[in-house]
Amino acid sequence: MTEQILQIMAWLVPAGPLLTFFLIMLFTKHNRTLSWMLAWAAIISSLVMGWLLAFNVFGQGYHYLEEQPIVVASAIDWLPFGDYAQGLWVRMGMAVDPLTAVMLIMVPFATTMIFIYSVGYHNYGQPRGTHVGEPNHGNEDPLIARFFALMSLFGGAMLLMVLADNLLLLFIGWEIMGFCSYSLIGFWYAREYPDPKEMPIPRIPPRKAAVKAFMTTRVADVLMLLGIVFFYRAFGTLSFSEAFSFEALQTATTVVGFGGLGIMTLLIFAGTVGKSAQWPLHVWLPDAMEGPTPVSAIIHAAAMVSAGVYLIVRIFPLIAVTIEGNPTVGVVIAIIGAFTAIMSATIAVAQNDVKGVLAYSTISQLGFMVAAIGIGAYVAAAFHLITHAFFKALLFLASGSVIHGMEHGALHVHDHHTDPQDMRHMGGLRQKMPRTFWTFLIGGMALSGLPFITAGFWSKDEIFADAWYQWVHDGKGLALLVFIMLAAAALLTAFYTMRQISLTFLGKPRSALAAHAHESNNYMTLPLIGLAVFAVAAGWFGIPDNFLGVEWGKINLFHHYVGATIYAVMADLYAAKLVAHKIFTLPFSWIPLLTSLTVALGGLFLGWWVYGRNPLQQGQPDPLKAPLGPVHTFLERKWYWDELYQKVFIGPTVYLSEKIVYEFVDRGLIDGLLHLIARVFYTIGYYMRRFEEVVISDGVDWIKDQFFVMAREFRQLQTGKIQEYTLVSMLFAVALAALVLLINYGWFARLLSSF
Amino acid sequence: MIPLSWYLLVAAALFCIGLYGLFVRRNAVAILMSVELLLNAVNINLIAFWRYNAPDRSVGLAWAVFVLTVAAAEAAVGLALIISVYRNRDSVVAEELDLLKN
């Protein structure tokens, strides 16, 4: 593969899906088959090209990559600034380094699986549904072409973000994804729900959920944009390769100081807090489950929320320098991550919606990654990002398959009131939906971190190992705190996963819906199998070099290759004492390994003990409800964050905007002023018109009348009798003659002079 | 020779009679006759001035002949008009012919 071909491929990878969006929206929207085939073609071509690029990068060998991480780079002059005649342009383009490469393996693959799945999910091939903008249970969704257009746009934006070589292009991809999230959450825009108090699982309509998601992430994006501006101020460039060189980082510490770097990092991190649904901006993700399940899988598991973590992984050199010089920042990031992890894990334990558990699980796992970055564990965070994307996408797709099965059951027994997503109505689906069961099980085990054979184990273990090392070796209390919190969260993760599996698949069906469920079509189940392969195998690329104390050689490919992305920079920074650690292989320790094993197996066992041993019967309440009592309600109501935000932020804002700005200022003051001005002009106009009517019009009429009067008088001369005409003319002739005589003979003058 | 003024006085007198008749007579034909009187009075004036001031030149004579001819033609036309009016209106009283009123 020549340099040029690789560069062209780097541009084509995001361009294909982006172009497909326009093609579908403009041309093929009415041909459903062509639309999804176009989407498939685009994403599969991105998959092929992405993998080719990735393997080209890996083929260089990690020793080469440590010196030269960026293998393929192509940029164009984009924005002139300053004296651009001198050639000063901001350049934007694509760059492929090992981190990008590993994302290029994961993102297109997961997206392709999800695209394949979506065709079956939206019931392609079934009779065309008639409800536009609502879910059409069992029938083909009438807006399926638009779905694939938006998903393609999203895929293109994610790939754009991953390949971007500067912060601005990353932000552009980021924002496009935000828009796609909004559109796709609100895909069933016409769906309405009854009063939430009457619903067993309270929900908000998809329209509101979409707005909520967008607004929450917007708050974060504004802060992030400020951070980007500050970044430019500090580094003078937005390009990653230029900004994250040793010299640039060293200069930046003097230009803005560690305080400034801290603010900058926290501002950019705010973007991650919003996008990756960390506390306090986590509230949008559970409501985002209103979107169709493929949307939940791709946007809210594999790609968009991963983008938040990708950002902080990408700017890791900056973060590393900042947390070394300004430890508060590290504390903030790590604690936000760890707190989010454990908080949402507790909430997930009490959720009854199958997608709700997974939503909180996602938030929790993202908290793991954020906490890892907070303590400086670059490779561990990236590793967990990749493995999580695979198994979480798998879990979401499998849950969608479950929901489909339940909906088939609902159609079968004509029950449209029972919520097909409520786990309390499921049960016994292991026999009815075997493929879904096994793939869900694999995904769930990966999430819990089942040792050795699942990917989640290896990536979580690495985070624990890093935290433990820093506590033991560096004495960082923060690392110990993170270790403990994440271990607790992992325990809860395994617990609620087992709970979910037991409630959904084990035991006997607890409702007619589950009793009549059946396995989903191949479009849906084959991607599950594809993702399950990766959920198992992806972890094997990250087995530590010194696992169990034995030197296995350089088997930790993930560490060596992805670590090579910033190896050189970190080495220089470490030598200059600007960062705590360079990229190195951790010495093996038994404690994190044993902790991982304990929490994973212990959590799974506890879950099985409570939920799996005696599977719940129909109508039986949750076994945790009674012992936990109000705590359980607190967890089930999601720690009441939504209610708190409503009271503190949303309520006052709505009040301000409706009552004060709208009614008082806009309609009262501004409109009042305008009405006043209008009335003044109206009155002026009225009086001017009166003037015109009375003075001008009537005056002119009066003159006209006088003319008529005069004419009437003079008309009397016209009698029509010729003799009278002759008399008058004769009299005039006489008068005229007299006048002429008077003048010509001087009598006139003498007459006048006698006065 | 008798003074010129005598001829002019006669002409003036005839003119006044004609004028009086023009205004007073009811019948249209009588009015035409009065117009003839006017014209002839003017003719007397013309011939008198010619004879007394420039008899060797034929200007005055020609002029008088002209006036006479025009008077004849005009009388013919006038009578033709009166006949036509009489045929349509059954009347030749000038007072009643007031179509041009107002």
Provide key terms for this protein.
A: 755 residues; mainly alpha; two-stranded antiparallel sheet; B: mainly alpha; elongated
What do these coordinates show?
- The complex is a heterodimer of chains A (755) and B (102).
- Chain A has a domain at 722-753.
- Helices cover 72% and strands 2% of the residues of chain A.
- Chain A has helices spanning 3-28, 32-58, 62-67, 98-121, 144-163, 167-185, 206-235, 240-243, 246-255, 257-275, 284-287, 293-302, 304-314, 316-325, 327-349, 354-374, 378-413, 429-432, 434-448, 455-474, 477-505, 512-515, 522-537, 557-563, 567-575, 590-612, 625-628, 630-636, 641-715, 722-744, 747-753; strands spanning 72-80, 89-96.
- A two-stranded antiparallel ribbon of chain A has the order 1-2.
- In chain A, strand 1 and strand 2 form a beta hairpin.
- In chain A, helix 14 packs across helix 15 (327-349) and helix 15 (327-349) packs antiparallel against helix 16 (354-374).
- The mean pLDDT of chain A is 89.
- Chain B is mainly α and 102 residues long.
- Chain B has one domain (4-96): Orthogonal Bundle (Helix Hairpins), CATH 1.10.287.3510.
- In chain B, 76% of the residues lie in helices and 0% in strands.
- Chain B has helices spanning 4-24, 28-53, 59-89.
- The A-B interface holds A 715, 718-723, 726-727, 730 and B 19, 22-23, 31, 94-95, 97-102.
